[in-house]
Amino acid sequence: MGRKVTERQLLLKDELVRASLLGLKHSTWRPLREQPPDKTENGTPYTGFQPTTLVISEGYDLTAHLDNPRYIGKCPYGVPGDRLYVREAWDLVKQVGTSVETDCGPEWDTSWEEWDGPIPKECPEDWWLIFRADEDVTFIDGPWRPSIHMPRWASRILFRVEGIEVRRLQTITLEEIKLDGIRIPAVKKEGGGVSPLIRITGKYRPVDYMYGKPFSKWTEDDLYRAHFASMWDEAYAKRGFAWKDNPWCWYIKLKKLRGRKTDFPKQVLWGM
Predict the structure, then answer these.
(1) Alpha-carbon torsion (116, 119, 124, 128), positive or negative
(2) What is the pTM of this model?
(3) Residues of the chain with CATH 2.30.130.30
(4) pLDDT tens, position by position, 141-157
(5) What burial class does residue 10 get, using C-beta atoms within 10 Å of its C-beta: 0-12 exposed, 13-18 middle, 19+ buried?
(6) Which end of the chain has less neighbouring CB within 10 Å, N or C?
C-alpha cells in the first residue's frame, strides 16, 4: 500500500499567481524557519549540512545527512508526491440590480454586492468567486480577502511536489529564477527591441541590489537577480531572512496539476 498523499497550502502573490496560471511557475523558495548557525558554540565552522545541497527523496527529514539535525527536521512542504494548493487574495460577489426611473422610462442598474459574512464551507448559490490576480476584476474596490483566509474549496491552482532541496538562497541561478515564475516587464523601443522596466521606488528597489553597478553594465543575470532579491525582501526581510544574509531555504520543484487562464493581456517581457 502506497504512502498517503498529503495536501498543504502555498501562499502566492498576485504576480506569481499569474505566472502559475500561465504555466511559468515550476518551483518556489521558502526559508528554513530555524537557520543553522555559521559557527558552533566553541567557535568552529558549523558543518551540519554536508554537502552544500541536500536532496529529499523519501521521508520528511534529513537527519541521516546531518551532523546536527536540530536545525532542519521535517520539511513543512512535505515530500515528493505531496500536493500544494495555492492560496491567493480573493472575494465572493453577487450581481444585484435595481430599477431606476429615467426620462426614457425605467432602466435596470446593476452593481456588485460583496460577501460580508463568515467564510462559508462552499461557494453560496448565486455568488461568484473572484481573484485579485485576474485582470478583469476592476469593478471591485476592495478590500480583498487576504490569501491566508482562502478556504481549500476556493483554491483554483494545485501543484505536485516533484523534488525538494536545501540550498543557500544566493545559489539560485538565472534559470531557477525564471522557473520560480519571475518575469521582468518591458517596453518596446522605437526601431524594434525592448527595454526592461526596473522599479526605482519603494523600500526594496531592484536597483539597490546592484550595489552601484552602472545600469549600462547590467547583464540579464544581474537584472533577474535584482528583481528576485527585491521581491524576496518584500516578503521575508522583516521576518529575519533578508537576501543579504543568504539564508538556508527549501528549494521546492513543482508540477502544476490544475489551474489555467489564457485571457490575461499579453505582456511585453524582457529576457525571453
Answers:
(1) positive
(2) 0.83
(3) 7-87+156-270
(4) 768 999 999 999 999 99
(5) buried
(6) N
